[in-house]
Amino acid sequence: MADDRQRASDDHGEAAAQVRPGDPGHAAYPVGEAEYWRDAYEQEPYYEQGRTFEDYSTAYELGWVSYHLYGGEFDTAERVLANDWVVRKGVSTLPWESARPAARAAWQRAHNTRSFSTNGAAAPGEVAQVLKDLYESARDAELGFREAAAHARLPELVALLERLAQQCGVAAAQWQAQIGTSGEPVDDSGTVAGAAQRVWLQIRGLFGGASDQTLLEECERGLADVAEHYRDALSRNLPPQLHAAVQREYEQAQRQHDHIRTVRERGLPAAADREMPA
């Protein structure tokens, strides 16, 4: 499949992107994106055990390129992408249903790359405050997912929720470490983290006796809140390296939310969908 691509070069003559015959130059697929996904694909929520990078790589390319070809919302363009997948999938053995979340993830990255930028002008105190808010949001989510996993009955759902809790814990540790190196005092008054705590407290209050379907619905709501915290942080003109780290976590939260929604929409076995008796 690589044989039918042309390489677009950067100012130093190095291969910066790949362009398929018939695709416009502005839809070139950056080599760096392919390398990003090569490192990340096995940690993605939609990854199927035993699949190789070659199964997913063309889905990532399709998502990135299609965003630049069509723009707008992924859901609006999905029918076109499903048809394009038949033509562009190459050696991938994935059906469109399995390739779809990977294409959507790459579409989101293309959108976010275009939508979010920073001039790095945030004051040190504001940076420290953003880090504290992100830490508390991620920590609350970690605790929420662990509690949801403790109440879930379907083993596959327990495993999913425990994995989400672990990923949120890693994010929380990342922000906590950066708080420790910032050297700036943090004002506890009036932070958005209090709102995050209220959201998860409300959600966790519904877990006792809840069906697995209800757990999914509430965790989906919690992930939407986590993503909103990251989206807000991306508007704060953070230092470039921190901005990039926040964008990576934002994209992960988007993909986690999309995966939970997909699992919920597909439905669960009837036994897991019943409320526990009080």
Question: What is the topology?
Answer:
Elements: E1 6-9, E2 15-19, E3 29-30, H1 31-40, H2 53-70, H3 74-88, H4 96-115, H5 124-151, H6 155-182, H7 193-204, H8 212-233, H9 240-266
Antiparallel strand pairs: 1-2, 2-3
Helix pairs in contact: 1-2, 2-3, 2-4, 3-4, 4-9, 5-6, 5-7, 5-8, 7-8, 8-9
Tell me about this structure.
The protein has 278 residues and is mostly helical. It has 2 domains: 2-115, no CATH class; 124-273, Ferritin (Up-down Bundle). The chain is 65% helix and 4% strand. It is built from 9 helices and 3 strands; from the N terminus they run E-E-E-H-H-H-H-H-H-H-H-H. It has helices at 31-40, 53-70, 74-88, 96-115, 124-151, 155-182, 193-204, 212-233, 240-266; strands at 6-9, 15-19, 29-30. The chain has a 3-stranded antiparallel beta sheet. A hairpin with a 5-residue loop joins strand 1 and strand 2 (15-19). Helix 2 packs across helix 4. The radius of gyration is 20 Å and the shape is globular. It starts with 5 loop residues before the first strand and ends in a 12-residue tail after the last helix. Residues 7-15, 187-194 and 270-278 have low confidence and may be disordered.
